[in-house]
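Both lines are retained for reference:
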Amino acid sequence: MSETPLTPRQRRLHELKSLVDYGVESGIGVGHSLGVLLETLEEGRTVWTLKPSPATANALYTVHGGVIATLLDTAMGSAVYTAIADGALYTTLELKVNFIRAVALDGAQLTCEAKVVHVGKRTATAEGRVTDPDGKLIAHGTTTCMVFPPDGPSTADSPPPPNPGAALDALDPKHWPDPYPRYAVAREAQPIISTPLGVHLVTRYGDCAAVLQDNNWSHAHEAELFHPGVEHVDLPTSFLWMDPPDHTRLRGLVSKAFTAKTISALRPRIEALVKELFDAMVTKGEADVITSLAYPLPLTIIAELLGAPARDHPDLQRWSRALARGFDPDPLLLPEERDARTQAAREFVGYFRDLIRQRRADPKDDLISALAAVEEKGDVLTEDEMLATCVTLLVAGHETSVNLVANGLLALIRNPGQYELLRAQPDLAAPAVEEMLRYDSPVHMTTRLAHEPTTLAGHEFAAGDGVVLLFGSANRDPGAFAEPDRFDITRYAGSAPVNRHLTFSLGIHYCLGAPLARLEMEVVLRELVSRGLTMTMTTDEPPYRRNLVLRGMEHFPVRFS
């Protein structure tokens, strides 16, 4: 009786298993020499193990990082091999490894599970996790491989085309800690991706930049699509959600009070506050960076600038968080989150109306008093316009800076070589801030509506169609940035032209508070390196808050030494 012939996929798995067995039997291959063993082999998934031994030790007599990297590389590469077309070959383009904790040479077996994230015509991506016997995370990594297709026509068993749904998959809360591999899938699939919500996701840098700089794309009416029926209480419209000429007039008036000179004058206060916050964290030895630094720094600075007393800062933070959560499209909010947004807006309105009226009657040396005094050819800010500006500056600026501080320090922890470079060259602080803004954007997306029928990347849009610009994806677009998944604090330090990241937007809606956010983060970095501190995360994977627009961690426990 004849045997059933193997399918191309079965043949592929059998081929890989034979290669592994041959390596074990003949004693060849770096993985075999280190004791890396295959446990599970499936299409798009492999599991490998390693039992540490003295041969895998480093000078500190823990498992050498190169050994763990080899375990990850072996597992992820073999997973890619099982998923590409029969007869295809691959080679590694990029291998990225993040080390979470050291591993003692106690004989405890390490396990690495690797899964393919996507397979495209030219590249394939996989991710892997190394855990100890208790399931604790030791290291995780990603690999991007170049795929060399087989000669001749493809077969029906060839891998499916890139999946546009990966962009939506990246927005799933379980992927918030690292959505970037899925953004890569989406970018390769197509530049414009339609969604069941009736809006379109824009994944690539050039297309996002084009929308931001084209006034045919409106920010004034996006609430009609993304926040239908939202109760605005009596919270007036900010210039953030205006189009010209209203936007031009209001932003121009606000800019006369919120000047570069005003921001520059804040440096001594920012430096003193950062020193105070670091003193407290270092004294304790361990702190939640979110509650001990990332929140109190920008909140205190913007609240003091506006003239809000310190006793009111906890209320401002609570209201700010509720409104910031409400930036996400309404279909993504829970009923209680929409209710909290409404209540926060109501309390914000009452608070700032009182404060504005106090400053009109008795001006102080603060921004609200400066806004009240602004005048341009007889034009002044109304009370409602001042109110909207105060809420915008506090919520948008403060919440963005929280994520910048936390995401930036996380990038340094996970890229210790870059941290050592910053310690050796503190003047790289400013370009490091720019790379942090690009690499792990604190503002992950924004929205626009088409004023009139238009075309973008070959896609036809009718008037009123909405788009979501995925800054997180655009800032990692290889079409705009060399080695976009590499954290490089020198990227913006040289004289060669580099594309601007989109985190602070482009065009008429470029972030008014960007200079303040940059200044705060630069001061944090300079204080950090001046103390010679070592930072160690005390959790495997920090939890992320429920917020897509302002993506950031809920808690970030760090040990300082």
In short: Confidence is low (pLDDT under 50) at residues 22-28, 152-162. The chain has 20 helices and 16 strands. The first helix runs from residue 8 to 26. Residues 162 and 189 are 5 Å apart (CA to CA).
